[in-house]
Amino acid sequence: MIGGVTSEFRKGTDIDIVHIALESALKLLKDTGFPRNLIDAVIVSSCSTDQYLSSVIAEIVGVTPKISHRIDNLCNSGTNAIISAFSYIASGLCDSALIIGVEKSNTLGKIFSNDYSRGQYNLPIFWGSIFKKIHMKRYGSTEEQICQIPVNNYLKAKKNKNAINRSNSVNLEQVLNSRVLVEPLKLLECCSICEGSSSILLIADEKFSFFKSQITSNKRNCELIPVSIKGIGQQTNCASFSNAITDIFAEGSARMAAQQAYKMARISPKEVDIAEIHDAFSILEILGYEDLGFVNKGEGGTFVNQNQISINLRGGIIGCGHPIGVTGIAQAVEIFEQLGRKRPNLKLNKSPHIGVVHNLAAAGTSGTVLIMEG
Q1: pLDDT given at position 364
Q2: pLDDT (0 to 100) of residue 117
Q3: Are 9 and 195 a contacting pair, CB within 8 Å?
Q4: Under 8 Å CB-to-CB from 290, ≥6 apart: which residues?
Q5: Confidence (pLDDT) at 247
Q6: How many other β-carbons are positioned within 10 Å of the β-carbon of residue 266?
Q7: Global confidence as pTM
């Protein structure tokens, strides 16, 4: 990866989806100075039903790619798009790929209408509430521990110019006393669906010198900072809510994906410096600590205020908002910026070297983990 840009997240506007995509894509191409005629693939991540979306965007930005298509896998569409681009490059089919995540706030991805096992409970908050109930009962995690997560992430979002909650802050008492939506999940423990876009450029490692020389020859004053994807894990255990519950704590998709990613990267969880964890609901961040191997199963509640790893520095999904097809790419952009030394890291006493992206979809039925090295 040699560049990444995330646009401002908004609760909803009349701007059409193509122009929202261009907000990050055009800025990325300008910032990197990457020659558009050298982009081999354009992949769009979105739950939008707009037809031919990637090819329309490619034409507008002046790219004629070998490969152009859209990917939809609900909330981990973004990381699935990154994996697809990585695979095209690793196979030799492409040398470069522009990946764009874009979503409107009225996306159909908010409701998984095909999962009949949910019955009338077809909103994600219902499975979030079940996970929280189970974790509290089985492992003894407390309301105070779980409700501290939105407090932490709202605070971090204040430093992120793109976050929808950048002007807000909450304290623990406010979270604990916020309106109960589905027992025991409260309003301030939940993310907001929003709109926005995020774009990244992926290139083959062995082509870095070539692309850098091409940019230099165009007399562009742009610095390319390479960050490598070292490990990938992707696991889909099922599609229905009923099957997700039975094994989510013992051997859920994210836990399996993390094991795959660590094996591919040849590292252990102890080597991770920074992490972007999928916190659409507060309890999911705690499950993320455990699935990524930062703590043992059941110990996530005691890890909330740890000082070992920098987690969700952009404000997470609760602080930033959740444009569904964008989130996985925005998470990767954040890790890229941290590893590229573009932002100061206040928690670590050293420069970050290894970062992890943790991205879920559909009741945790699908999980993706990316390990990045700078």
Answers
A1: 79
A2: 58
A3: yes
A4: 255, 296, 297, 298, 299, 300
A5: 57
A6: 10
A7: 0.94
> What letter represents residue 27's amino acid?
K
Structure tokens at 284: 């999911």
User: Residues for the chain: how many in total?
Assistant: 374
Q: List, in order, residues 6 or more apart from 102 with CB less than 8 Å away.
A: 17, 20, 21, 44, 45, 46, 48, 53, 196, 197, 323, 325, 326
For 181-214, what is each residue's pLDDT tens digit? Answer: 999 999 999 999 999 999 999 999 999 888 888 8
67 close to 88: Cβ distance less than 8 angstroms: yes
Rounded to the nearest 10 degrees, the angle between the axes of helix 17-32 and helix 53-61 is: 40
pLDDT tens for 317-368 read: 999 999 999 999 999 999 999 998 655 555 556 789 999 999 999 877 899 9
